# Entry
Amino acid sequence: MSRSVIYTLFAVSLLLALFPLTLPKPGTPPTLKADEAAYVMMAQSLAHDADLRVEKQDIERIFAQFPYRQIDNVILMTDDGWQNVFYGKPYLYSLFAAPLTRLFAANGLLAFNMLLALSMVWMGTLYLRTFNADWLAALFSAGFFLASAGFSYVFWLQPEVFQMAAVTASLFLAFHWLPKVEGGRGWTVAALSGAALMFAAYGKPMVAAFALPILLALVRRRHWRRATAWVAGAVLSIAMVTGISAAMTGHPSPYLGVERLGVILCGPEVTPIEPQPAAGRIGPGTERPTGGAWSWIFRIPEIHPRELAENVGYFLWGRHTGLFLYFPFALIALLLFLATAGGRTAERWSLLAALAGIALFFLIFISHNWHGGGGFIGNRYFVNAYPGFLFLVTRLRGGKATLVGFAMASLFLGTLLLSPFGRSAPEPTLQSHARGLPLGYFPRELSLREIPGYRKMSIGDYAFSGRSDLILPRGDSLWLRGASRVEVWMIGERPLTTASFLLTGPPVANRIRLRMGSDEQRIELGPGEHRRVDLAPRKPDRVRRQNGATFYVYRLIVTPERGRPRDWTRYYPQAQCDNFPYQESTAETFFFGAGLTFMGVDGLAGGDPFAVRWGNFEIPTTVEAGAGVEFPVRLFNSSAVAWEAKGAARVKLSYHWLNEAGEVVIANGRRTELPLPLAAGKRATVKMQLTAPDQPGRYILELDPVFEHLAWFADKTGGHTRRAPVEVIPAKEPPPSTEGSVSSGSDAISD
# Structure
C-alpha cells in the first residue's frame, strides 16, 4: 500500500480512536438507551468481579457514571425464581471490552467500538486494493463503514459494531487472506475465519448464513482440508463461547431456558434485587417482561404474501429503516457487483443469497419487529450483516460510484454523521433525523409495532397516528402544529368514500390547506372559528394485510399557515423512582395551528339526522341535590339517517336543567351513550344517567339528544325534546362511619 494512503488512514484512525477517551460521560444526553445498561454493567462486572452475577457493587458503579436519572430496562435473567440473578444478554461483547472498561469505565466501551470500526475500514481497504488503486480502495472502504448508519452504532454501548467486525473479519480472512496463503497456514486462517463468524452468530444466529459462500468457495477449489478446518474452527469457537456462558450462568445462552425481565433501577442504595414470585415485582422499580426467548425461531411463521411484499419495500426504502437510505454504499456495492462480469462468481452470488436470506428471515419471522425494536437507527438487526455487501465488490470502475455513495450519505445521513450522539429537537427521539428532507418523503413503515416519536389514538373504527412533535391528542380531537406540514395517518378495516372533520382555528385568522388522496381543499378560518370539512379521497393510499385482516390506509396532509402558542402539560411518563421526580419546569407550550375532530365517515349525505320521537320513560319526581340518578328512556330514530356507533361526533342522550320560568340553569348535562348504531326508524331503550343540580328547588328536566361537535337536536328542530318537573331536595347527611364495619348496600350479594 502506498505511503500516502497509509499515512492518511493512520491519521484518520488516530483522530477517531483517541477522542472517545476524552468524553466526560459517553452518550449525549447522558443517559443509557435501549439495551445499553445491561452491556455496560456486564462489562464492568467482568472487569472488576470476573462474573456475570448482578450484585450491589454493579449497581453502585453504573450510578456513579450515570447519576442523572433512573436506569431503565436492565435486562436480567434467572432460572430459580430470582434467587440468583444474572445479566440477560450475550456476554461476548462485554467480555472483549472489559479490559478497556476497567481502565476507562463506560468510555472504554465507546473506545472499543471505535477501534472495531477502524479495523473494518483497514480490512476493507486491504481487500479492495487487490482489484483497485490504493487510494480508491481506502476511500470506498471508509465511505462504506463510516458514511453509513453503522457508524452511529459506534456510539451505542451495544454489540452491533462488535458483530459487524466479527462478520467482516470472517469474510476478510476467507475472501482476501485465505487465497494468498499456502500449506498449513491456510488451515489456521480458515479456522480463524470460522471462529470469527461464530462470535457474531452467538448473538445473532442468522449471520451464520455467511458460512455458505465461504464453504462454497473452498469446495469449488477442492480445498477439502481448509473447509474442514473452517468447520472445526467454527465448532470449537461456539463450543468455547457457550461453555463459558454455561460455567458462569448455568446456561449456554441467555435466550434458552431462563426467565428474562427488563428492570428499572432507582438508585445504588436499592439493592440487591430481592427474590419474588415470577408474577410479582422482582426488583427496584417496575419490571416489564421481555420476549427474548429463541422459541420464536422454531415456530411456523404466519405472514400474508402482501404483508411480506410491503415489508420488503420498507426494508429497502422505508423512512426509518430503508437499507438504501441508511446504508447507501450497500446499493453502490450491489450495482457494482451486477455491472462487473468478472466479479459475479458463484461464491459471490451465494453471498448475495445469504444477505437476502438473513433479511427475509427477519421480515418473515418477526414481521412486526424486524428493524430492531424501540431502540434503533436504520435497521439495528440487519446492520450485523451489512459488511457482507463489501465483499460483493471487486472492480470499483473509477471513483464516480464512490462519489455517489458519499452524496447519498450526505442527503440521508448528514444529521446522524454530524451529531452521532443525538440532537436536541422538540419531542426528541433517536429517529428525529427522519423528520427532515428528504427522508420525510419516503414511506413510513406502518407494519412495524413501534417507531418512537409518533402518537396514536383511536376514534371510532379508525386509528390515527402522526409525529409527536406535530400532533397532540386532546380528547376526541387532535391539535395540529401551526406553520407546519402535518401528516396524519388514518387506518381502518373498511374503506371510506368521504371522511368528515370539524376544523377549529387558533385565536387568529388562519388559512389551512387539507389534502386527502385526490381531494384538496383550502379553508380560511376566522379567530377561533369552527368549520366542517368533508374530504373524498376516492381510494386508499395503501391497502395492508396484517394478522389475517385487511386495513385501509389514508394519508391526510394538513398545513396550517399560522399558529399561536397554547398552554399544555407535555406528557412524560411519571418517574417510577422517587429519586427522580417529574420536573414541572420541562412543561412547554404547543404551537396551535388547528384542531381536527373526526366526525365520521361518508358524511351526512343521506339526510338530516336531527329527528327523534320519544316513547315511555319514568323520570323520578324527586331527587337529592347533587345526586346521580338512572332511569329508563325509550326513543325512536325518526330521521332518515342511521346514528353512527363510533366517532367523535356521535349521537348521545343528554339534558338541560331549567328553572320554573323555563330559563336554562344548566345547559350541558351528563352524556349517556346510546346502543348504537341505531338505524333510521328503529327504537332503543336506554338507561339514562343524570346528575341533579347542587341547589335544592323546583326544576324542569328537558331531555335533548346531542350530536357531539355539531348541534343539540332542539337547536335544529325547534322541538323534539321532552320535559318533566323535578323537585330537588336537600341532600341527606351521610351516616357516621364505623371503622371496621361492613356495609350491605345495593352492591352486596344476596342469596
Q: What stands out?
A: The chain has a mean pLDDT of 87. Residues 612-729 form a domain with the Immunoglobulin-like fold (CATH 2.60.40.10). The longest strand covers residues 589-601.
